[in-house]
């Protein structure tokens, strides 16, 4: 005696068949991509405004804003890369001097 899938699974599969094709058509439509594009543009504008406002507030309190911290982190990363490069160059020069001796 074999049992079929549970009732809940049958309901889910039936609902997916009823709704799935419509959703699939919707997310492949030009309208969907236009809406998503506008939402992303709006999100970007809103994020920029909020970041600008928060930056001014932090600076009024004489504290670094997130953009300031990000810039310092980028500078630090560049400095770390440069220190590594210089260390490698020094190691090469040391090896060359040892070989000459």
Task: Tell me about this structure.
There is one protein chain. The protein has three helices and no strands. By secondary structure, it is mostly helical. The chain has two domains: 50 residues; 38 residues. The radius of gyration is 29 Å and the shape is flat. The model has no long low-confidence stretch (mean pLDDT 92).
Quick description:
This protein is mostly helical and 101 residues long.
Please specify the SSE layout and strand pairing:
Layout: H1 7-27, H2 30-60, H3 66-100
Structural class: mainly alpha
Shape: flat
Query: Radius of gyration over alpha carbons?
Result: 29 Å
Q: Please tell me the overall pLDDT.
A: 92
Order of helices and strands: HHH
Keywords:
101 residues, 0% strand, 2 domains, single chain, mainly alpha, 86% helix, flat
């Amino acid at each position: 005696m074999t049992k079929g899938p549970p009732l809940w699974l049958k309901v889910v599969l039936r609902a997916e068949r009823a709704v799935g094709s419509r959703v699939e058509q919707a997310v492949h439509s030009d309208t969907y991509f236009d809406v998503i594009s506008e939402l992303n543009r709006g999100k970007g504008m809103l994020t920029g405004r909020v970041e600008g406002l928060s930056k001014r507030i932090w600076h009024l309190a004489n504290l670094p804003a997130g953009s300031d911290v990000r810039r310092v982190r980028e500078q630090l990363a560049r400095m770390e890369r440069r220190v590594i490069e210089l260390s490698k160059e020094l190691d090469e020069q040391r090896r060359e001097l040892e070989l000459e001796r």
